[in-house]
Each structure stands twice: as C-alpha cells, then as structure tokens.
Amino acid sequence: MSSVTLDHVHKQFGTAKGVEDVHIHIESGEFFTFLGPSGCGKTTTLRMIAGFYYPSQGSIRFDQQDVTSVPPHKRNTGMVFQNYALFPHMTVFENIAFGLQVRKMGKEETRERVEKMMKRVRLEGYGERRIDQLSGGQQQRVALARALVIEPQILLLDEPLSNLDAKLREETRFEIKRLQLELGITTIYVTHDQAEAMSMSDRIMVMKNGEVQQVGTPYEIYHAPVNRFVASFIGETNLWEGTVVAVDGEEVRVQLAAGQMLTGMRKHASPRANLTTGSKVVMSIRPESVEERTAAEGENTVSGTVQLAEFTGACVNYVTTVGSEQLRSMSINLGRPIKQRGATIHWHIPKESIYFAE
Ligand SMILES: Nc1ncnc2c1ncn2[C@@H]1O[C@H](COP(=O)(O)OP(=O)(O)O)[C@@H](O)[C@H]1O
Ligand SMILES: [Mg+2]
Predict the structure, then answer these.
(1) Which CATH code, of 3.40.50.300, 3.20.10.10, 3.40.50.1260, 3.30.70.100, is assigned to 4-229?
(2) Reduced to 3 states, what is the DSSP secondary structure of residue 278?
(3) Is the domain covering 236-357 a CATH 2.40.50.140 domain?
(4) Average per-residue pLDDT for the chain
C-alpha cells in the first residue's frame, strides 16, 4: 500500500486543457474518489497516476518515490478500465493470469494466485469460460480480479459500474468496498455518480472543467460545499439568493427578493462567501432540513403554495413556491395528511441548516 501525491499536476493536450493544477495527497489505504461531470478531467488524472499519460507540468509520487516518468508496467498499479478492456477470445483464467505471465511468474504460483482471486470475487469454477459467455456483472468481476491479482500497491477504477444496471450497480458498490476494506489497498475511484461517491469514499475530489473544486469527506462536501456547483452536484439542494442586511455577532440576516427575512450563522459559510452588509449571497438549503409548521410564526418561517406533492411511501416531497423562490422539501412520512397542489404550507428553515455558498 502506498500514498499518492500529485504535486501541481497539469495536463495539456495540444491546445486543449485536460486538467489544471491538481494538488492532492491521498493517504495509504484511503478510498479516494474523483467526482464530476463528463469531460471534467477524471480519466486524464487517473491515467497520469497509472502512467498512461505523463503530466505536462508537476510531479507524481507514490510514498516518497517520484514516478512522474516511470512507465505503467513499472508502477505496480492495478487498473479497471471503464469498458473493462478484457480479452474476449481468452478464458476467465487467462484474462486474470495475464498480468502475472507478463511478470514471468511460474505456472504453479500463477494458478494458485488466480484461483485465490477468483474465489475472492466469487468467480470460482468460471476459469474455463470465455469472456463473451459471461454476464456484465461477471465481466466486471473478472476485470477487478485481473487488476488485483498482481497485488498492486494502488487500485485504480475508472467508472467500473457504469455498464451495469441500477440494481447490480448498487450490489457491486458494496462488493468493491468490501474487497477494498479486506485488502486495505489504496483505491482511487472515478465516477460521475454522486451517490456512488458519497457511499463509498473516505474522501472525494470534486472536479469541473479540469479544475479541482473541493476535496473533503462526503460529510464535509455535503454540508459545506464551497460553491454553487458543488452544492448542486452533490445531492439535491435549494439555492436561494438574497442580500445581507445585517450582521449581528454570529448571526447573518438576509433578505430575499420578495422581502422575507432569513437568519443564518456566520460559521456555516464557504470561505469564499461575502457576508458583509449589502452584499449578495447564495444560500444552500437542503430539502431534508426544512420542517413543516402549522402556522407562519417565529423566526425563519416562510409560507408558500404547494406546486407538487409527491408521496414515495417512506417520504413526502413537496415543491413549494415561496415568494419568488422555489423550495424543494423532503420529509419522512409520519402519517400526516398530505397537502395538495394549491394549498398553503408553512416552513421553518433552521438557522443551522442554511449554508452560505460562494
Ligand atoms: N487523448 C486526448 N486528446 C485530446 N484531448 C483529450 C484526450 N483525453 C482527454 N481529453 C480532453 O480532456 C478533457 C478531460 O477529459 P477526461 O479526463 O476524459 O474527462 P472525464 O473522464 O472526466 O470524462 C476533455 O475536454 C477531453 O476532451
Ligand atoms: Mg472518463
């Protein structure tokens, strides 16, 4: 197992930008995820760690060793590619054994290692099958076994679940996490799916247009997004704009366009938010944090009109018009009657649940 450091890494493809100034330290044994929309530079960054691309600027270290210009086969990383890149004409056994044969391992040891790995990923007895005789989920496990059989220091996974259907994706998510915990291997995982990133990772790096937006634990990124992009990419949120009208000790009073006043806490703010009197701010309010009230009384209470009521069994979700804003809410179903479209509804927005984004 080793740590991975990217020291101000840039990658330029001719005149096109791949990634810009990625500066991160991934701990040994950590499950670290690159998250962002398509084209934001996740694969490019992963490929530089594997050695398939070399940075245009900056350096990469595994523990203390500089690997910036070390070729892929000398890095001891195991990689699962987005389309798996299995050899279709070869058997499961031959696919998994491939990396060991390249490393000139003896026949007996190869057999032992491959069989042990097939057991680990629950492919026991499938050794003689051809790849095209396997389901998508089984192919995914062959790709994982092939990456792990060489006992890499670092496991690199590029959208490994994107070819699977929703149910299998969820199962495989736990499977990968289980393997990673058992092996204690440093794992770098690429995905555009925030639910995957949130549920599996120790830390997440959120990217956009080749640039790092934020690095943090799922909890930090969810509760303290640095900007609008991160706030809306991770989970669902309401982004309301307002003007700071007063700052009173720890409290910040904000007026919305339609006149309502909300109070938030100064400590719940991105370092980039400007909380001086007169400035415009964006507030991120998570749907699960607002509470239904029977009357519009007290601080931070707003009234609105129900546009949409959605009953999912476990939850009741409303879309409410509040002045010139829209509020999405999500509450656990406690058996209360559900308000219908057009009804008036009162909401309390707790001070602690308002987060001032950029
Ligand atoms: N080999 C390449 N040649 C030219 N441009 C590339 C190449 N690989 C990636 N890019 C560009 O770099 C950017 C990041 O791509 P990529 O890392 O594949 O994104 P992601 O994996 O997040 O979808 C994109 O704009 C993409 O077009
Ligand atoms: Mg990609």
Answers:
(1) 3.40.50.300
(2) coil
(3) yes
(4) 94
